[in-house]
Model the fold of this input.
Amino acid sequence: MLRYVIILLLLVGIAPVVPILVEARLDSARQEPRETAEADRGSGPRMHRISVDRSGHYVADAYVNGRAMDMLVDTGATVTVLPESIAEDAGIFVAASDYTIPMSTANGTVYAARTVIDRVRIGAIRFQNVEAMVLGDDRLRVPLLGMSALSQLKRFDISSGTLVLVQ
Done:
């Protein structure tokens, strides 16, 4: 009986710590993994290939300020655009009063907040100080990587269903 009481006391003592440990583990899993040694060596141009998806879009596994997310690579977009909740997850916070920049979209004119993203990484490709806009979540669901980032590349090519980024 004493054993059961000791085990119960241990479980009661450990229970409050478990959510903290789980959250810390999830948080570290969402952060950007360490670069590979090959990417850090800087030998030759850095390249990354993105295959077209079923809907005809190029969606990249990206890290924005260290946070993992899918980004639609949009060569027709002048600027990189983030939905507000995704921007906040990446440490970018804007006030309601910051939504002053009119933007023309397929759904008409909307107002955006101007910001700068410190860093974006797609594979071995790294972008820094990327001019961006933040839109309300009701206006945009998927982050767009536009020409404000892509202009930092040497080139990009689309051929046979593959987008190749070269830096």
Summary: Strands lie at 47-51, 59-64, 67-73, 80-83, 101-105, 108-122, 125-135, 144-145, 155-159, 162-166. Residues 34-40 have pLDDT under 50 and may be disordered. The longest helix spans residues 2-14.
